[in-house]
Specification:
The complex is a heterodimer of chains A (356) and B (372). With 356 residues, chain A is of the alpha/beta class. In chain A, 38% of the residues lie in helices and 12% in strands. Chain A contains 13 helices and 8 strands. Chain A starts with 8 loop residues before the first strand and ends with a helix. In chain B, α5 (158-167) runs parallel beside α6 and α9 runs antiparallel to α10 (294-301). The chains are: A alpha/beta (356), B alpha/beta (372).
């Protein structure tokens, strides 16, 4: 059976902001006026055009509506639908891509107020990622400090394609604040379009762009390893969200081999990249880029070499599977239970209390 | 930590009985100019003056250094510098002595790594590519019939590239067409199709060796800091290149076209193909020009060289990778004389039958390149 077992923790659901109008109550007078007078709206990330069925499953959207805007639908389709005990909200409004860092900080703050008042306060099964303006780590740290007292915020959300690979020291104050408060770092698919979305230039199709995200995630992992982030912040967990994970064995083999050859350049990296990744990095289940058969998946899971790394997710309301078939073939019941509860609990220190 | 830690130490292991008997086809060997002056005899005097006064122009920050300094001078094994001077790969006799003879190499596919294909001044780029091809023919392929060159072409000027391909058409010394992989646009884009059309018409594979500078961030997550990252990222970039060729419909339009992805390894291929199939299932309406699942183009039109051969925790995982990839897809390569070259006695460390070895070490390449 591929049905979800009840009681799991869904580590990736996407409530969507209906539009800037919905944020006005949470903006100060200056930004209310700016947004209104200048008609600023439509900052949904171009990486996820919401009219695409891939980003809004047909049976999970109101006809003509923006998928993910209704709490009642999310309660029914995602929480009740999969019997989940908790679900982590990852809003994908394009705050990280805004060029004006002051505006980005204001929108980030408003987003967090909005998700608190309109989602978390209305549904006790929900948890959320903190939206930050990573354009300037000072803004992001201020926002993390502002939310740290609310245990329903469990991670800080970044994107896989930002100005620099995520090991870059510009992000370290964010990591320090997150580690201090027991927050994890979520890295979600998506681009701020600061550079071409592949190192070969701009792809033509959404399909290419979405598929090519797995290479961006891999570049980020190399950056996190070799810049020394895992050494500097040993308690911090990184959760790659919508990254896929079937590329992981091949990636780790190559990273290990390259490190063995070139490690003199990064003497602070004192363990093989694969070991560091197994200790510090987690992956959400969906989308699963499955091999042809369940047996192939079993072999692949053996190659991944850890039962701790995968976290249950539906990616609601994105279309990654049909019906209730959230489990790819090849997962044993024992592994499913780890993926549903144990692994999320260990990936998110702030969930431990809620799950006592 | 010392620089020595970054060197590959190749132990002198006893030759494994079966592999040492094999005739090998080495699909990635780097010859080199002894000096940039080597090309001048093949270039008009206008370019002699130009190079003297203005030099070359590429979208990189330094005039002579690599943006990411490599782990060894000239990227090469310390023992590969020819005794008579000149950089590694520049001396045919030494290449014969160090690579071709001891490893029983039947054919070696040459790839010259130098600017020319990605030169921003297009007339200079075209003149350079032509000169490289003349030089390869006169000084390498005509001097040792084991050597096969790639027709080096300027990808950003497809009409000139097509002229260059046609200039060498039918010449058996040239086994493929080569252009930079870091082009201005992803190589599936239509601006490059005339090159594929010409190559397919002549039955020449496109040899895609990681190379070139295009000004784009070197990873799809931005600019990295270290060579240890960049070295791996060039392989990730080759994955994006394969995705582009497939999604743009290059193989749909030119079903006979063969693409060989060089120096990116191969264990990544199955998961990239699975991922494309998975999402094609949701987005196929966007790419109605694809008549097949993306994985089928990987299976039918693309081949992969082995180096740098991966070393999983359990060597047998490589057999699994090959089962997923398809045993007819993999072409052995040493990458001589580079520091991370694969020794044929030691690479691909898992047990293969003799028939499997013959395919990977020679017969797959013979079929792709149409070698006798």
């Amino acid at each position: 059976m591929n049905m979800a077992l009840p009681g799991g923790i869904d580590c990736d659901v996407h409530p969507a902001l209906p539009g800037m109008q919905a944020l006005l109550p949470y903006l100060d007078a200056y930004w209310q006026e700016q947004v209104t007078v200048r008609g600023i709206d439509g900052l949904d990330l171009a990486s996820f055009p919401l009219q695409m069925e891939a980003h809004g499953r047909r049976d999970w959207r109101e006809p003509g509506g923006k998928p993910g805007t209704s709490l009642e639908r999310l309660q029914r389709d995602a929480l009740d639908g999969f019997g989940s005990r908790l679900a982590i909200c990852n809003p994908l409004y394009g705050v990280l891509a805004i060029y004006n860092e002051h505006f980005a900080a204001a929108v980030a703050r408003a987003m967090n107020d909005w998700i608190t008042a309109e989602w978390l306060d209305r549904e006790p099964r929900l948890r959320a990622s903190i939206t930050v303006a990573a354009q300037n780590a000072e803004h992001a740290v201020d926002e993390i400090e502002r939310r740290a007292g609310d245990a329903r915020f469990v991670q800080v959300l970044l994107l896989a394609q930002d100005e620099a690979p995520l090991g870059n020291r510009r992000y370290w104050p964010i990591y320090a604040a997150a580690e201090r408060h027991g927050l994890s770092i979520g890295v979600h698919a998506g681009s701020t379009f600061r550079h071409a979305t592949t190192s070969n230039g701009w792809p033509s199709y959404h399909l290419e762009d979405y598929a090519a995200h797995s290479q961006a995630f891999q570049s980020n992992l190399l950056s996190l390893v070799h810049e020394g982030v895992f050494n500097k912040f040993p308690a911090l967990k990184f959760v790659l969200i919508e990254s896929g994970f079937t590329w992981l064995p091949a990636f780790m083999w190559r990273a290990n081999k390259t490190w063995r050859g070139v490690r003199a350049e990064v003497p602070w990296v004192d363990r093989a990249p694969g070991e560091l990744i197994r200790d510090h990095v987690r992956f959400t289940l969906q989308p699963t880029d499955s091999p042809p058969t369940g047996e192939d998946m079993e072999r692949l899971l053996e190659q991944i070499g850890s039962d701790d790394m995968l976290l249950f997710s539906t990616d609601y309301p994105h279309w990654q599977f049909d019906g209730q078939n959230v489990w790819p073939a090849g997962f044993s019941d024992a592994l499913k239970r780890r993926v549903l509860v144990d692994n999320p609990r260990n990936a998110y220190p702030r969930l431990k209390e809620a799950l006592q | 930590m010392t620089p020595e830690d970054g060197r590959t130490v190749v132990a002198e292991a006893p030759a494994s009985a079966s592999r040492s008997k094999l005739k090998l086809i080495d699909c990635d060997v780097h010859h080199a100019l002894r000096s940039s002056k080597d090309l001048l005899p093949y270039m008009a005097s206008r370019w002699h003056a130009h190079l003297k006064e203005f030099g070359r122009r590429r979208p990189v920050p330094f005039t002579a250094a690599s943006p990411y300094p490599k782990t060894a001078p000239a990227l090469s094994r310390t023992d590969s510098w020819p005794p008579n001077g000149g950089p590694p790969g520049s001396d045919l006799a030494f290449m014969q002595e160090q690579l071709l003879d001891p490893y029983n190499i039947e054919y070696a596919m040459l790839h010259l790594l130098m600017s020319g294909m990605d030169e921003r001044n297009q007339d200079l780029g075209n003149a350079t590519c032509s000169a490289i091809n003349d030089w390869q023919y006169e000084h390498w392929t005509q001097k040792d019939k084991r050597l096969k060159a790639a027709i080096v072409v300027p990808g950003e000027d497809p009409p000139a590239a097509v002229r260059e391909i046609e200039r060498w058409a039918g010449n058996p010394d040239f086994a493929q067409v080569s252009l930079v992989t870091h082009a201005i646009e992803p190589l599936g884009r239509r601006r490059y199709w005339p090159i594929y059309e010409a190559a397919a018409a002549l039955g020449l594979p496109i040899g895609l060796h990681s190379s070139g500078n295009n000004g784009h961030a070197v990873t799809s997550a931005g600019w990295c800091s270290y060579y240890v990252e960049e070295q791996h990222n060039v392989a990730l970039s080759q994955q994006n290149l394969a995705i582009s060729l497939v999604c743009e419909g290059v193989f749909e339009r030119f079903p006979a076209l063969k693409a060989v992805i060089i120096e990116a390894g191969f264990v990544w291929v199955p998961s990239v193909a699975w991922r494309l199939d998975q999402h094609w299932g949701r987005m196929r309406g966007e790419v109605p020009h694809l008549s097949k699942k993306p994985s089928e183009y990987f299976r039918q039109n693309i081949w992969y060289t082995s180096q740098p051969s991966d070393e999983p925790e359990k060597p047998e995982y490589l057999r699994q990778s090959l089962d997923w990839l398809g045993w007819d897809r993999l072409l052995f390569a040493t990458d001589y004389p580079h520091w991370d070259m694969d020794n044929p006695e030691q690479a691909l460390k898992f047990r293969m039958s003799e028939a499997e070895q013959r395919r990977v070490f020679a017969e797959n390449a013979r079929a792709v390149y149409g070698l006798a």
